[in-house]
Amino acid sequence: MLYSSDCKALQSEAEALQSEAEALQSEAEALQSEAEALQSEAEALQSEAEALQSEAEALQSEAEALQSEAEALQSEAEALQSEAEALQSEAEALQSEAEALQSEAEALQSEAEALQSEAEALPSEA
Predict the structure, then answer these.
(1) Which segments carry the region annotation Disordered (predicted)?
(2) Cα 107 to Cα 109: distance, rounded to the nearest angstrom
(3) Cα–Cα distance for residue pair 64/56, rounded to 1 Å
(4) How far is 46 from 39, CA to CA, in rounded Å?
(5) What 3-state class would DSSP assign to 88?
């Protein structure tokens, strides 16, 4: 009879181990499903990261192009400023020249009036 009870104990132990194995199998399948879901999420995140990297590179290129354009416009602005300053100097020189010519014209006018007065004061030869 000892043999029969040993068999029953072994049978119970085998059933318990079978149940444990089935539970572990279910847990392994659940973990596998979770791993596959995480792998899919990781692939989606990798794809998104690559898209963001491409966008960042495009924005960097655009920023560099805008920086170059800004530098070119700055150089043009500086050249125009220099030209404006040169034109201002030229305008001031022409203004000074115009004032000098105006003074000379006024002096000649005064001289002409003085000569006219002298000529009128001379006795006429009639």
Answers:
(1) 20-126
(2) 5
(3) 12
(4) 10
(5) helix
Residue that the structure tokens 């009036």 belong to: 113
Token pair recorded at residue 91 = 């305008």
Question: Residues near 61 by Cβ (< 8 Å), separated by ≥ 6?
Answer: none
Record the tokens describing residue 18, joined without a space.
């079978």
Handedness of CA 50, 56, 59, 64 (dihedral sign): negative
Reading the block at residue 112, the tokens are 């002409």
Q: Which of 104, 108, 85 is nearest to 96 (CA)?
A: 104
Decide: helix, strand or coil at residue 122. coil
10-15 long-range CB contacts below 8 Å, 24 or more apart?
none
In the block, tokens 């990798």 appear at 46
pLDDT per residue as tens digits for the range 68-93: 999 999 999 999 999 999 999 999 99
**What tokens does 100 get?**
């000098």
Q: How far apart are CA 117 and CA 9, in angstroms?
A: 155
Is residue 114 over pLDDT 90? yes
